[in-house]
Amino acid sequence: MNDAEDILKTFKDENEKLVFNHVKVSDVREEIKSVYNGTYINPISTGIEKLDEHFNTFLGMLFLITGFPQSGKSELLRFIACNWVKSGRGKVCFFSPENETPILYTEIINSVRGNMDYKVAEDFVNEHFEILEINENNGLPEIKSMIDEMEEQSIRGYNFFIIDPMNWLTSTTYNGNGFEALRATLTFLKRFAKRTKSVVGYVEHPKTPIPNKDGSYPKANIFMVNGGTMHNNKIDGCLIMHRIKQIDNDGISVMSQSDHVIVEVAKLKFQKYLGTPNSVTLNYDWQTGNYY
Questions:
Q1: Do the beta carbons of residue 197 and residue 242 sit within 8 Å?
Q2: Closest Cα partner for 233 from 218, 220, 221, 222?
Q3: How does DSSP classify residue 49?
Q4: Which of 1, 97, 138, 143 could form a disulfide with 5 if both were Cys (CB 3.0 to 4.6 A apart)?
Q5: Tens digit of pLDDT for each residue in 190-229?
Q6: 3-state helix, strand, coil in the chain (%, to 5)
Q7: DSSP readout, 50-91?
Q8: 183 three-class SS
Q9: DSSP for 9-23?
Q10: How far is CA 242 from CA 65, 160, 183, in A?
Q11: Phi/psi of residue 54, each to 5°?
């Protein structure tokens, strides 16, 4: 049985054991009151004032960040996670197999440090962050084992989970059953976030775009991601990154220490509470890893 069949069988088995709760108004009167007074969904700041006008997280959220390579996807997700910890929301668990762990930890330390002594910042990160690595004797992970691991982490106080990139969980499933396997994967993740009152943010890369007639490339969008329609249907929010690079005197695009990005809020549920989708231009400091 291949990975796609394993995931689909697990998803089927879960559905076969599904038990429904019969909920009446009398069962959720207090929750309904909180909906009326605007506290049922509490917006949680990203740490970026300009972005908060258009996008906030909430407990139980599953959201996607996408964009072409070098657009700042991982950096923005990491910044939001670091702000989560600094504001006292909880702990962060990373699954980021394409990064070198010492480098990733260095970037996290620099992002949270501020005016802290380096050793204090290092100890703070040690207490509030954890990185999941794949044991060298294992193959590619699948969603059920990942959910089991995340469940254990949630018991230990971790409530912000990063998967960067998602295709490490779904890359082996993109065959004849790929669309259904992706549906199962996103369903498991959304159910986990809701059940544990956690936030799950993930990165997914768009496919290589077809150039325009003038040779330029179109902006990335959610439908350039493999299974884009399914991502769009399942997630609570989507941010799309567009990098704006500095132009030197010869008209050549170059990197700078303080670069600019456009963050497009392409989808957002519960807009009444979380913001109005729009695009916002942010500055990025390459040395500290901070957005402003």
A1: no
A2: 222
A3: H
A4: 1
A5: 999 999 999 999 999 898 877 777 766 778 899 999 888 8
A6: 40, 20, 35
A7: HHHTT--B-TT-EEEEEESTTSSHHHHHHHHHHHHHHTT--E
A8: helix
A9: HHHHHHHHT------
A10: 11, 24, 27
A11: -125, -15
- CA-closest candidate to residue 199, choices 174, 236, 240: 236
Residue type, 210: I
Burial, 73: exposed, middle or buried (Cβ in 10 Å; 0-12, 13-18, 19+)? buried
Q: What span, in angstroms and rounded, lies between the C-alpha atoms of 156 and 128?
A: 11
pLDDT band at 16 (very low <50, low <70, confident <90, very high): low
Residue 198 CB-half CA count within 13 A: 27
- Which tokens in the block code for residue 52? 């908060």
Type of residue numbered 77: L
Cα torsion 163, 164, 169, 170 to 10°: value is 120
